[in-house]
């Protein structure tokens, strides 16, 4: 995985001029995106809403351009298909992210899980498994789920309200 990521960034993406975009940051982007893709496919379906949530989350968390985000997702999709388990992704995240960032990854997983307004039991199990691999406490796991549910609920009520006007 690491060699493919290095080649990808050397060939297609230029690190930012501030020196903050180093190879570990790129690997983290791909590892995070790969976990989100795994989440989107947990119910054996590929919903556009889930992939939009992946795109939005990666763009937001890593401050990438839409083009960079699309390329990260494309490569992460390939990596996710080649991976035999989640450990290679979670191991990298555990090494590089602090606890708050790991909680943010769990929240992104919930965003993808709930993006299509349905929660398959396999999706919930996968979020739980990844949260455990990231050593995120159960309370934070639940708090992230509730935040995303409130966010999506508020957005759907707002759009329903607009329909009545």
From TrEMBL:
Pfam families tied to this protein: TerB
Gene3D superfamilies: TerB-like
Ranges of residues in domain Co-chaperone DjlA N-terminal: 29-145
InterPro entries, per database record: DjlA_N, TerB-like
Organism superkingdom: Bacteria
Protein name: TerB family tellurite resistance protein
Organism: Spiribacter onubensis
């Amino acid at each position: 995985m690491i060699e493919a990521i290095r080649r990808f960034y050397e060939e297609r993406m230029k690190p930012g001029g501030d020196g903050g975009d180093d190879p570990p940051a790129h690997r983290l982007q791909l590892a995070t995106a790969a976990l989100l893709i795994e989440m989107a496919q947990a119910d054996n379906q590929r919903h556009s809403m889930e992939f939009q949530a992946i795109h939005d989350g990666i763009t937001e968390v890593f401050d990438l351009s839409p083009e960079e985000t699309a390329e990260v997702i494309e490569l992460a999709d390939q990596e996710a298909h080649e991976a035999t388990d989640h450990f290679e992704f979670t191991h990298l995240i555990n090494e590089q992210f602090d606890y708050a960032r790991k909680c943010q990854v769990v929240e992104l997983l919930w965003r993808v899980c709930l993006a299509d307004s349905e929660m398959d039991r396999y999706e919930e199990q996968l979020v739980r498994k990844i949260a455990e691999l990231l050593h995120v406490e159960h309370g934070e796991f639940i708090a992230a789920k509730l935040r995303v549910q409130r966010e999506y609920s508020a957005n759907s009520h707002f759009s329903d309200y607009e329909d009545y006007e």
